[in-house]
Design goal:
By secondary structure, the protein is of the alpha/beta class. It is built from 15 helices and 15 strands.
Length: about 500
């Protein structure tokens, strides 16, 4: 990840090792830019010149391949070299060709945002981790307050900034320097702005990783993930949503992990992935720029979330009529909202008897049959559109909706459906039978206070591992012969729940 401290750490190691007995040493700053600016021959000759302490090498008109004479000299010297920010395996191979025969004790240190660059040649790979909370606060204080320890800034504001940086040293330094000597009102304004408009100095560094992606499919997958997920997500779920049968999403995600644009816990069981908030913000900014610059954009990423809309908005019946290839539709309350925060927004909506985003005349028949992910917080209609084909749907999220029944028509195949979240849909009375939803893993009905019946085919859902009925106070008839794979159920406040 850009700004995580790779160069700083390599520089510190270089300075410390320089006190050891090395006969030649050189730190090549920013190989990526130097390679693009001067080409491989110049960079290779500069490295050899410094390590051998011989300026004549710079004037040599030699082929790119290292000569036997120079190689023989290099093999007899103990050298230290740091190659900073190498983004291409070919570039690295060109620079270190023949260096496997260096004198005993020689060291070559390489920093890269791309793990794949290092795998081929490195003896060991060290991942630079994010700073923890204490380290983040210490670094931020160093730049935001310096010696002015008496500056009165609310601790929650300080934590708000360090939380935004999320352990990224560059972000902590940039934001700390920007806020230094500023008054509390400036801090408040800065925090509000950062949630909507990313800091350009930080974003420029992070965007290098995105621009270094040499395949449009990988870029598309990155932008899809940045727009779709707000926190930790399952790789399996991401692939099931994004793979339309004509893509290589699994491989593309692996590339994004190697490029440090996505992080992986490397646990084969849960296989969870995570994207840093700053990187996600960068991806969404790219989408917004695309929207501004082109009338034919592939994604829409609004500046405001639904909870920030100040006036009621009515969608016309044909709002999605031209989006024939729409695969992801996400109308959400706000990013990373906790359950307590969602309940507050939900309560405010109910109390006002108004929903800021509504469709007075419905949506029929304009929802794309290609939809794979459908989220609409506070969905304003009492059912899904009658002609909405769900055969490609993987996740359905209608939190706080006005849905009474999901649909009023016969059962249809749901071969890909993995998750249903209808939490706090207070008008929902029952779920339809889902006998063919064989991949369904999660059902969340928390806070559905009118819910009275669970569908009978629940016993056939072999993949179901999560069922949340917390707060379903009117539930009277609950029959379930669950598979032994069911691992977690929340059933608080259900006195009538029968035991199995």
């Amino acid at each position: 990840m850009g700004g995580i401290g790779k160069t700083t750490l390599a520089s510190a190691v270089y300075q410390r090792l320089s006190y050891c007995h090395f006969e030649g040493r050189y730190f090549v700053w920013n190989v990526r830019e130097e390679y693009a600016r001067h080409g491989p021959n110049h960079l290779r000759k500069k490295l050899l010149s410094e390590l051998l302490n011989d300026e004549a090498i710079l004037r040599m008109d030699t082929p790119f391949v290292i000569s036997p004479f120079i190689l023989d000299r290099l093999k007899r010297k103990k050298v230290l070299a740091v190659l900073d920010d190498v983004d291409n395996s070919i570039h690295l191979d060109a620079l270190v060709e023949g260096y496997n025969q260096l004198a005993s004790g020689s060291r070559i240190i390489v920093t890269s945002r791309n793990k794949q660059v290092l795998k081929k040649v490195a003896d060991d790979i060290y991942k630079v981790e994010r700073l923890n909370q204490n380290e983040s606060l210490e670094l931020f204080h160093l730049h935001a307050f310096r010696k002015n320890i008496s500056q009165a800034i609310d601790d929650e504001m300080v934590l708000g900034v360090t939380s935004y940086a999320n352990g990224n040293p560059l972000a902590l330094k940039v934001l700390g320097s920007f806020l230094w000597s500023r008054i509390e009102k400036d801090w408040e304004s800065a925090l509000k702005t950062l949630k909507r408009i990313p800091n350009p100095e930080i974003q420029d560094v992070l965007r290098i990783s995105y621009e270094g992606l040499d395949d449009q499919g990988i870029k598309d997958t990155f932008l899809d993930i940045a727009c779709l997920f707000n926190s930790t997500f399952s790789r399996d779920i991401a692939v099931s949503i994004l793979d339309d049968g004509n893509s290589f999403v699994n491989i593309e995600i692996s590339v994004l992990i190697d490029k440090s644009l996505i992080e992986s816990n490397e646990d084969p069981v849960d296989n969870l992935l995570w994207m840093h908030d700053l990187i996600r913000q960068m991806g969404r900014a790219i989408v917004r720029d695309e929207h501004i610059q082109s009338s034919n954009c592939s994604r829409l990423e609004p500046q405001q979330s639904k909870s920030e809309i100040k006036e009621n908005v009515n969608l016309c019946r044909g709002a999605f009529s031209n989006m024939h290839n729409l695969q992801i539709l996400k109308i959400y309350c706000c990013d990373d909202i906790s359950i307590s925060e969602f309940v507050k927004v939900y309560t405010d909506n109910i109390a006002g008897h108004e929903f800021k985003l509504s469709t007075p005349k419905g949506l029929d028949p304009y929802l794309s049959d290609k939809l794979r992910y459908f989220q609409w917080d506070f969905y304003p209609l009492n059912s899904l559109p009658s002609k909405f084909n769900l055969q490609n749907l993987v996740q359905l999220v209608l939190r706080g909706s006005r849905v009474e029944k999901l649909w009023n028509y016969k059962v249809q195949p749901l071969p890909l459906l993995r998750m249903i979240d209808l939490s706090y849909s207070k008008f929902l009375t029952q779920l339809p039978d889902l006998p063919q939803a064989r991949k369904l893993e999660s059902i969340n009905l928390e806070g559905c206070t009118s819910f009275v019946q669970v569908f009978s085919s629940l016993q056939n859902l072999d993949k179901l591992t999560y069922l949340n009925l917390n707060g379903c106070s009117k539930l009277r008839d609950f029959f379930r012969k669950a598979s032994k794979s069911t691992g977690y159920m929340e059933v608080a406040a259900l006195e009538e729940l029968k035991k199995f």
